[in-house]
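My current task is to audit a protein record that another person submitted. What it holds is a sequence and that sequence's fold in token form. Thanks in advance; the entry in question is below.
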Amino acid sequence: MQRLLLAPFLVLPAFCQPPTAQGDLDDYILRAMKTFDVPGVSVAVVKDGAVVFAKGYGVRKLGETAPVDSHTLFGIGSNTKAFTTASLGILVDEGKLSWDDRVVDRLPGFQMYDAYVTHEMTIRDLLTHRSGLGLGAGDLLFFPPSSYTREDIIAKLRYIKPESSFRSKYAYDNLLYMVAGQIIPVVTGKQWQDFIKERIFAPVGMSDSNTSAADFRPDGDFAAPHSEVEGKLQPIPAAQIDNVAPAGAINSSASDMAKWMIVQLGSGKIPDGDQRLFSQRVAKEMWSAQTILPVGDLPPALAALKTNFAAYGLGWLLREYRGYKQVTHDGGLPGYVSRVALIPDLKLGVVVLTNQESVGLLGAISYRILDSYLSAPSMDWVKTIHDIQNMQKAGAADIEKSQTSARNANSKPSLPLEKYSGKYADAWYGDIAISMEQNGLVMRFSHSPALTGDLEHWQYDTFKAHWRDRSLAADAFVTFALNPDGSINQVKMVPVSPLTDFSYDFQDLLIKPKK
């Protein structure tokens, strides 16, 4: 694609910079943006209670010239979770709830698949990814954006089967963070978004931030999300995920996130006064290990990331980086990824915000800045991470190639195509329609407009769903199982590529014909 000239936009005096020389860091970030094909980036660094670096690079939207600066808004995705946790921590400080209150005592309509889990689940359990649900279970209820309300989604939790026993295994989820956010209006009478604005944004001074993509103004300083579509990077619409807002809907700037990091590193203390956002006791609890994560082996090129422990706290991932405890979290939305990385012992924090779905760039920039403060050996994180990503892509391509080579392309469907059309439903997702149209079968998820796809015959009674919105990058195999009389018994789906985002949890669906 044609690349735009990237023009850094400096917003702080030149002396406010991390140990890496200003010019070197600028060149490094610009090279990272080019390597990972990212139009716009905003970075901030805080140290010892002060903002020492805040700068934007590139453009807000491809094809336009408006530059990214330190006040440009980006979707921060799951970095929202720390704000939801902090909100609950404020209420813990006020004695209005406890981390270990049972959820059903606060939300009487709450119900999981297993009655025991329903009875025993606490607010702490909502925040620590140990419910027994599988990775990203139920995310199709909101991703791609759906018409379901928060109340609808909570009501559907009872139909999602667990993958493991309660509190036995870590598996990242989003839906239970939304449930946690719904406890706030029950306790305070204020909606989650209003509480965030009044009790966090205002006292911390986060004047740029908002809680919904619907708050973006056409003339506002916000970065448009971008995604690779059929091999070409292009702007895409900002995702409206207000139905799970407490899990990932905040939009913020590097400037505002710098203020947030200073409060976090100060154990809840707001600078320039005696006010606290939350107590030291709550701060310690949020950064204490709640769910232990397995520590796997890394490729030799990533030996610097070796950790002796990994755990999830309350809204934060805890691990080791070069001998220091690191408190960190990534966030992702269609067209955005972000990272917050804190080294509490050094009062050091780094935030990287981007308008492209490139996790590789997050690591390349954040590790480079952390290394400069830790006097670590020089390492080209851009090349290292990019090489590994290319290996992963090649591995995924090999898997898809093997699928194609194993395919029996000469096989035929068991039924005439029109016999596969009809009304279907999954117990937790809801209605799904398959219709026979002019060019073949079309699958439509009733509450998710983007999940409209053409079904191409693959082999036997398996079809491949090609979603018409090609920015999804989530094509799926759709397999029909027949009864002895030739009628359809059920339909199962799995993603085609191993690189498909985990939130496309097609494999958790058990689709049945509607009677």
User: Anything to note?
Assistant: The chain has two domains: 9-91+180-384, 417-513. The first helix runs from residue 22 to 36. The chain is about 25% helix and 25% strand.
